[in-house]
Give the backbone structure.
Amino acid sequence: MGNVRSGSFEIFKKGGATKISLFLPSRNNAGYVSKDGAVYVEAAPSKGTRPDGLPDIDWKTQKVVFALGQNDIAQLLGNPEASLVHSKDGVSKTLKFIAGKEKYTGTYLMNLNQREEGKDEMKVSVAFSAGEFAALGVLLKAALPIILGWNLPIPEGASE
């Protein structure tokens, strides 16, 4: 996969945290996109509280990563509560946002689960405020042309 763009959108809450990063597409020598980019959603649960009172996030042993491709982004932009499922090589991952109700209207709870044969299921939930969820939507809309390579210049010497 291409290189990650510097920086990530990070949300840290008492129960867990998420980092959302943009990975650039790769181009071949002819200038064609050889591999689309993606938006990586990484999430990990809190394993307690650090001495400074902030959540202690377990990024090493409990992290779940979900790569959002163009179809995933399109589904989320059309229906924020779409359930996305990726399965490969005996590993199944599910990403779902659940809208808050009543006094939580406008907020969302992100659930990210990973199941793998012979291992305990990993589950991470991270709450998004209304503003955080709106920012995620802006980032996904901006990421779509980038992960498709529509904004990348064709390298010099490449045939069109």
Q: What stands out?
A: DSSP finds two helices and eleven strands in the chain. The helical segments are 70-78, 130-147. The chain has a mean pLDDT of 89.
